[in-house]
Amino acid sequence: METPHDAPGNQPFSAEDLRSIYETRFGDRSAYRDRVWRVLVRDYFQRFVRPQDAILDLGAGHGEFINHISCGKKYAMDLNPDTAKRVNADVEVMRQDCAKPWLLPDGSLDVVFTSNFFEHLPDKQALARALAEARRCLKRGGRLIAMGPNIKYVPGSYWDFWDHHLPLTEQSLAEALSLHGFRVEHRIGKFLPFTMARGPRYPVCFVAAYLRFPPAWRIFGKQFLVIGKKRA
């Protein structure tokens, strides 16, 4: 099911721009990315999600996370028109600007998950509005789980992507969460490697081994992981 979408507003790219960028960047890696995300969900992220939870995948892209997570209710928000074609039938797609009011009731979500999305927002004001909407829609004690490139560890190559706008670190995002009604539970500066858009395609068994060996994160990790819990 797909809900009506809002106009892009102050988003720097149109829906068709997003479709083209994503297809150009990941088109020949879609199957590989899906296999990697299956392992990431199974071996790491599923621990934060209960069977009955309602989850929103914010900036869902092709739905690699939301398709594999096990939960009670699934939502995917993205302006990319291809999202609705890529997610499974049990996912409700919301094509809207995340900085505008979300088409969800107060306290209707248990988890908001987002990966490699906040850096695409045009400015900190847009991020602040998205965080405020996440807090509104989360239940008391609900979690926001955010992963993204850490500008401290990819200062030059961060800007190799045409649609990167907002540089963040685990510290700056944690502070933003604290200012918007969240208590930071986990703050990891080095979690996963930088990108799956370029470089070698390692066997997915390497991904499982990597997740089980945190010392390797300190060597290869270029993305942060920050988890905040909604305060009462």
What does this entry look like structurally?
The chain is an alpha/beta fold and 232 residues long. It has one domain (2-230): Rossmann fold. Helix content is 31%, strand content 22%. It has helices at 15-26, 30-43, 64-68, 83-86, 124-137, 170-179, 204-211, 217-220, and strands at 2-3, 54-58, 73-77, 91-94, 109-115, 138-149, 182-188, 223-230. Strands 1-4-3-2-5-6-8-7 form an 8-stranded mixed β-sheet. Helix 5 (124-137) links the parallel strand 5 (109-115) and strand 6. Helix 2 (30-43) packs parallel to helix 7. The longest helix has 14 residues, at 30-43. The two termini are 32 Å apart.
Q: Can you lay out the helices and strands and say which pair or pack?
A:
Elements: E1 2-3, H1 15-26, H2 30-43, E2 54-58, H3 64-68, E3 73-77, H4 83-86, E4 91-94, E5 109-115, H5 124-137, E6 138-149, H6 170-179, E7 182-188, H7 204-211, H8 217-220, E8 223-230
Parallel strand pairs: 1-4, 2-3, 2-5, 3-4, 5-6
Antiparallel strand pairs: 6-8, 7-8
Helix pairs in contact: 2-7
Task: Give a brief description.
With 232 residues, the chain is an alpha/beta fold.
From the structure above, extract its key features.
Rossmann fold; single chain; alpha/beta; 8 strands; 8 helices; disordered N terminus; eight-stranded mixed β-sheet; 232 residues; globular
Mean pLDDT metric: 89
Q: Major sheet: size, sense and barrel closure?
A: 8 strands, mixed
Assign the CATH class. Alpha Beta
Approximately what portion of the residues adopt beta-strand conformation?
A: 15-25%
- The CATH homologous superfamily is named Vaccinia Virus protein VP39
Order of helices and strands: EHHEHEHEEHEHEHHE
Total helical elements = 8
- C-alpha end-to-end distance: 32 Å
Uncertain stretches:
1-9
Rg, rounded, reads 16 Å
Strand arrangement in the largest pleated sheet: 1-4-3-2-5-6-8-7
- Structure summary, number of beta strands: 8
Could you tell me the CATH topology label: Rossmann fold
Instruction: Please state the overall shape, judged from the principal axes of the Cα atoms.
Output: globular
- Binned, the helix content reads 25-40%
Number of domains: 1
Under the CATH scheme, the architecture is 3-Layer(aba) Sandwich
Category from helices, strands and their pairing: alpha/beta
